[in-house]
Amino acid sequence: MRADARRNRDKILEAAREVVAERGTDVPMELIARRAGVGVGTLYRRFADRSVLLAALAEQYVYELMDALDHAVAAEPDAWTAVRAFVAHSVEKSRGAIAAALAGTSAPEARQALVDRIDELVRQAQADGAMRPDVGTDDLMEVLNVFACHPGVVPARFLPLILDGLRSSPPSS
163, 143 in Cβ contact below 8 A? Predict the structure, then answer.
């Protein structure tokens, strides 16, 4: 892809991310083009229709989450702390808005790759004895779903309490 085509694609995706987070997935394509500073024809040359654009946006979002997961693993001292850091990052308001807007939008391969990597981290936290053995990746994904894709359903102040419930009890003395 030529450099100018890549720049236009990136501008369109960034504009789409902002507009979809603000107004949902039914936003007019013309508004996305205007926000990106490109013509509608340029938008449609890059993305044949709304579903293609949303799929690309969803895939980009999932890869951003994978980068955040990698960062948490590298920056935190152990798997459990990395799980907490990743969840906190994932449910921040701006990410929550785009997650809610993109819920159900396809990017199945990328999403499965993310789930597999989260599963590795969960298993490591369990092997370290920091995370309850009866809690699985599906449970953690539900926590992410509730707080990122459905913000406001459960007050944000409950997230630390829920995460504490996933943690193994401290050893008895």
Answer: yes
Residue span of the structural domain in which 96 resides: 57-173
Report the first-to-last Cα separation within the chain, whole angstroms: 62
Would you say residue 172 has pLDDT above 70?
no
Do 74 and 122 reside in the same domain of the chain? yes
How do residues 4-32 score in pLDDT, each as one tens digit? 889 999 999 999 999 998 898 999 999 99
CATH for 43: 1.10.10.60
CA distance 62 to 67: 9
- Give the Cα separation of 105 and 17 in Å (integer): 13
Q: Which residues contact 132 (CB under 8 A, 6 or more apart)?
A: 126, 166, 167, 168
Q: Is the pTM of this model over 0.70?
A: yes
Residues 41, 119, single domain; the answer is no
**Per-residue DSSP letters for 31-47?**
HHHHHHTS-HHHHHHH-
Given the structure tokens 């997935």, which residue do they identify?
Answer: 25
* 141-153 per-position pLDDT tens digit: 999 989 988 888 8
